[in-house]
Specification:
The protein is an alpha/beta fold. It has two domains: 6-254, 3-Layer(aba) Sandwich (Aspartate Aminotransferase, domain 2); 256-390, Alpha-Beta Complex (Aspartate Aminotransferase, domain 1), CATH 3.90.1150. It is built from 15 helices and twelve strands. The strands form two sheets. The protein has a seven-stranded mixed β-sheet with strand order 1-7-6-5-4-2-3, with helices on both faces. Helix 1 (6-12) runs antiparallel to helix 3 (60-73) and helix 3 (60-73) packs parallel to helix 10 (243-254). The longest helix has 20 residues, at 256-275.
Length: 399
Amino acid sequence: MEAYTLATLAIRAGYDRTHEQENSEAIFPTSSFVYESAQQAADRFSGEEPGNVYSRFTNPTVRTFENKLALMEGGEACVATASGMAAILACFMGTLSAGDHIVSSASIFGTTKVLFNNYLKKFGIDVCFVPQTDYQAWSEAIQPNTKALFLETPSNPLTEVADIARLSQLASQAKALLIVDNCFCTPILQQPLKQGADIVIHSATKFLDGQGRCLGGAIVGSQSIVGEDVRGVIRTAGPTMSPFNAWVFIKGLETLAIRMEAHTLRAQLLAEWLSQHPAVERVFYPGLGSHPQYALAQRQQKGAGALLSFRVKGGRDQAWSVIDATKMLSITANLGDVKTSITHPASTTHSRVEPNEREAAGITENLIRISVGLEDVEDIKNDLVAGLNALLSPAKYPG
């Protein structure tokens, strides 16, 4: 299947039909499996014979999703989890030990930062944070015990694009793993493993599903690291993806290529329109020539993606008034949906981050994030225009 394009792999790869010869992948909603003999049961549990043991760590539907995503990302193995955060936790539990050190981008999801600061540190894993695109800071932050470099690219919500190949060189010199969250691009727009990353992480909840139906996560990488070390965490600790959710994600992958193309087209048009609106101070979108990493995004990604953010003139009150004036957009912190969503990062996704850290990361009170869906872009613009135009009214916002 490796000879096929990504769009074809998303539809055809990773599945062996059962004896029923179904055309759509089957769901196996079972907790356990039976064996032909006591000897076979013993061989399955010991690992001497491959096959299903228990759905906490071996389920045919989950395996289909894992096989398909591994092929799409260009990895040897994939482990599916119950959520994106479960994927991040399982990844670090499987690859690090007490006394190890992580260098992380400061421009990561707020809950990931809380996981690092409040929980990994409790178990003796230290973390420091550096500006996403300051490669000198990355280099200087590496210590003798640094075992992993972690980032999201593009970042949430400011869409900062990091040079994966450059960070791969730093990680290699330090004998550390480069772990990249590829949630926002998906393998359709970016394949970090082919650019030097060791591990790719996904929140399948987002674009891999594409319709906001299920929670799930995934880790992709080598057989030795992901297929053995990380899978061992899933087998023992149990943050497992359900068969039904895996089946939903399989169906989501089938349309991923055309959805990401359509998301990107609409996001580009919306970003260009917002950048011309007099109530908008600045737009953050890698597809705009004004973006600081525009040239890098053009080389590293096949498209700029669906996520954008912008600062309105004013503060929190003005940002909230724009959000509250919308009638069609979904006011929700989730993203990756066919329905366009809008949120205020400082009071939602990054609200648990200390205010000074938020400000340093550029997540200001006047910042709004949009995950552009698949509605007609003119309808999206029309839903935003009333709130934006109101900011220009001196009567409503004197001074």
